[in-house]
Amino acid sequence: MSEASSHYSVLLSESLVGLAIKPDGFYVDGTFGRGGHSRALLAQLGPMGRLVAFDQDPEAVAYAKASIDDPRFEIVYSSFADLLSVADRAGWTGKVDGILLDLGVSSPQLDEAERGFSFMREGPLDMRMNPAVGLSAKDWLIAVEEEQLARVLKHFGEERFAYKIARAVSHDAKAGLLNTTKDLAELVARVVPKKDKHKHPATRTFQAIRIAVNGELDALKQVLDASLAVLAPQGRLSVISFHSLEDRIVKQFMRDQSQVKDLFPDLPVLVATTEARLKRIGKAIFPSEQECSQNVRSRSAVLRVAEKI
């Protein structure tokens, strides 16, 4: 089985329906991964359609160049946080008919032990989406202060034993004892006093450190803000999230941008307002039972769609 055929794209049909694809439209896939959404989108475009995909993972970019030979397609080696600057340089700000964001870690990143994302596979403690940029998880854990690590685990991982884990992890990291994903996973498993029935005790810790190392939530806020400038009128924004922190940011952004705001709420009369910039399309969409049974990683996914006014 090829890499493309074995990769499962979450909420594939639902996210494309949300984009309301026009055959001659111009679309952006902010998270190419292994190209499942991009291929399905290209299949719905006519000869005049165009798709630009982003990915900060050099392996994903190399795979895109090797596997998709289509004049309508372009891959950009960059984080989607750079969407606005790329659009401005290329001259397509305000001209995009739809933006698709499939957040989180791609299946190949989780499945390849050497990338260091998964506590299920022993590999170097890395976790960077782009291995050429920033600190690895190992080096970040050595550099970060215990108190800051605890805040990261509590906020980004929603970990109730954040301070207990941070104390142990900070000690072992600075002592040079944390070199692999197995080292970290086993340490957390020893430290956590109470285990969840159906979740590895290191799940939240790995999520939190990965988000911090890659600056994922800040990047998400940047691309959401950029979408307002990059989209054409009636352009669609289709976002798939995989945990509550991401979904909360997306939900709040779409809600806030769909409201008319009073700029001076404390005054007794309405002096000035800001226009709503988005219209929410439908309600949050979740994977079907069938999709969840076919792909366990779909279980936590949620799709939200909005349209630029």
Automatic annotation (TrEMBL):
GO cellular component: cytoplasm
Reaction it catalyzes: cytidine(1402) in 16S rRNA + S-adenosyl-L-methionine = N(4)-methylcytidine(1402) in 16S rRNA + S-adenosyl-L-homocysteine + H(+)
Record keywords, A-Z: Cytoplasm, Methyltransferase, rRNA processing, S-adenosyl-L-methionine, Transferase
Cellular compartments annotated: Cytoplasm
InterPro entries in the cross-refs: RsmH (IPR002903), SAM-dep_MeTrfase_MraW_recog (IPR023397), SAM-dependent_MTases_sf (IPR029063)
Biological process (GO), any one: rRNA base methylation
GO molecular function terms listed in the Swiss-Prot or TrEMBL record: rRNA (cytosine-N4-)-methyltransferase activity
Superkingdom assignment: Bacteria
Main location: cytoplasm
SUPFAM superfamilies in the record: Putative methyltransferase TM0872, insert domain (SSF81799), S-adenosyl-L-methionine-dependent methyltransferases (SSF53335)
EC numbers for this chain: 2.1.1.199
Keyword Ubl conjugation: no
NCBIfam families documented for this protein: 16S rRNA (cytosine(1402)-N(4))-methyltransferase RsmH
Database matches in HAMAP family: 16SrRNA_methyltr_H
The protein's name in its UniProt record: Ribosomal RNA small subunit methyltransferase H
Organism from which the protein derives: Thiomicrospira aerophila AL3
